């Protein structure tokens, strides 16, 4: 039983190696960008010119988004430190201040 399992594993590995070798021979030369990147040549992006679109975000919405992003980052750091048993009083105070600001801004 063990000999059969070992033989099957060897056969599977051999078939994978032969198929990879055959794929490499059939594919021919690599794409020019890939070849240049491995040889240290410059690789450039050749996308057609696109017209960029601009949109305006209202200032109150941008401020609220910044507060939320900062709060999320602090909560993530706090959770990570809590799992290590580290307590950062200044960060906890900043978290509560940001949460209070967000709660107060919600009423506006």
Describe the secondary-structure layout:
Blueprint: H1 2-27, H2 32-39, H3 59-84, H4 89-106
Helix pairs in contact: 3-4
Attribute tags:
single chain; 108 residues; mainly alpha; 4 helices; 0% strand
Describe this structure in words.
The protein is mostly helical and 108 residues long. The protein has a domain at 59-106. It is 72% helix and 0% strand. The chain has four helices and no strands. The longest helix is centred in the first third of the chain and has 26 residues, at 2-27. The chain is flat.
Q: Output the helix-strand order.
A: HHHH
Number of E strands: 0
State the helical fraction. over 70%
Kindly report the average pLDDT value: 76
C-alpha end-to-end distance? 74 Å
Query: Could you give a short account of the major beta sheet?
Result: none
Shape: flat
How large is the share of residues in beta strands?
A: under 5%
Q: What kind of assembly state do the chains in view correspond to?
A: single chain
Give a brief description.
72% of the residues lie in helices and 0% in strands.
């Amino acid at each position: 039983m063990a000999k059969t399992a070992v033989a099957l594993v060897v056969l599977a590995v051999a078939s994978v190696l032969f198929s990879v070798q055959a794929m490499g021979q059939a594919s021919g030369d690599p794409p020019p960008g890939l070849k240049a990147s491995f040889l240290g040549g410059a690789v450039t992006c050749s996308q057609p010119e696109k017209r960029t679109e601009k949109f305006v975000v209202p200032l109150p919405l941008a401020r609220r988004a910044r507060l939320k992003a900062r709060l999320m980052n602090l909560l993530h750091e706090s959770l990570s430190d809590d799992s290590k048993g580290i307590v950062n009083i200044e960060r906890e105070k900043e978290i509560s201040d940001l949460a209070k600001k967000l709660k107060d801004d919600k009423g506006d």
